[in-house]
Amino acid sequence: KHSRVITYFKPDKETLKIYDYLIDYFRNKINNSPETKFIEIEKFEPTSNSPIINVGISTKDNGNLMKIDCIKFFVSNNFEIYNDKNKKVLFCEGGEKNLWIVVYRTRLKQFSVISPYLNKEVRIKSMFLIIKPINENNTIFVSEYKWYKNTFPQNNEYRGELVVKHLKDQIVVINRIKLDEYLYSVVAEEIGKDKPSEALKTQAVVARTVALYRKKMKIHRYFDICRGQHCQVYSGVRKESKETIDAVNSTIGEVVVNNSSLVDLFFHANCGGLTKRWWSKNDLISDVVEQKDYEIKNIYYWYLLPPNLYCGPSEYVHPGFSRWVRIIEKSLLEKYLNEKYKIGVLKNIQVLSRDGNLYIKKIKIVGNKKSVTLSKEHLIRNIVPLGPLRSTSFVVEYNKNTDEYYFFGAGWGHGVGMCQSGVSNLAKQAENYVNIIKHYYPDVEIKKLY
Asked: Cα angle vertex 97, ends 95, 100, to 5°?
């Protein structure tokens, strides 16, 4: 993130020196850390029947694979390594000071398993390696990935096992884990562990459904689900809490179905008062109004003087989630749009069409050299510099006196499916998780799979 900010401006030598110093400092701090402190975890009886899910943990936020050929990790206690024939090939000593490295040697077509602490290296010919702790209560701490001289710090700790698979000249790292233990972390990441218990239960059931649906549909080639926003955000043990564990265990095995089939569910941070229909013809994800007396007489009132909303500000919802404003100097906006579209002098920004719930479907940027019409959500949200707009639900105003553009908006995210802010506030009003789910996904049922 810091590099994006620095490269946007014209950096002087002093800025670059500071930037390089900070990169080296944090890299050395991670690499030379004398020990790793593991989180003590417990195994819970309700997860005994939980299915196994394979989570790609060496992926980017968009679901694509990171280009890596090496993983550095610690295991909280002793562990074993198995090959692609499920044969144990190595017994390894774990512990907080014992760093282990797995690297794939492309020319040799072999894995190297290295322990700098024990000063030993073992080479194994196999399609993949399984890193399996001796005890189920042990965890694996992934400190970093590498690609030649490039380092990608991770510092995430995982339950379950790791699978390191080679693909031509790179590797992919997979966390093989029980579904419900995976959800302990996902619920905290996606909605926050500080939310009401019924909100956490809602997220647990929805997240379980998302994971199983994506596994069934084989969204990814090498694993069931990825660790980023493309699927669901997952960072392992250190994001878990007693509240999220209780929410998952109290809804164990429950999923959202229609006619006994898993439903393709979506959710987002805040809808701004109106959710929108899914991009495909999915009647189960339809428009939902987040207020009791729904009427928009003036579009500007909707953004500037909003009514009471389920997703409005509360102790669980920040005021900047349901309504927000971005103010950008015309000169800065013009420079940014010229870098992308070569429009010349910025003359106007026109909203050409909206859907029934005010999300912009088409917007036109008018310049003296060229005009550009945008219809894709990510392009519309990225018409401004220094980070995208929070949603495509907004109005644009130009202030001649200050020579600035004002973007008054509602909500955060794509607006499809379940509004997490609305979930939190409905739970605060004592709604139970089943009713909350049916509020956002009409005509569905909750089914216990296991």
From this structure: 80
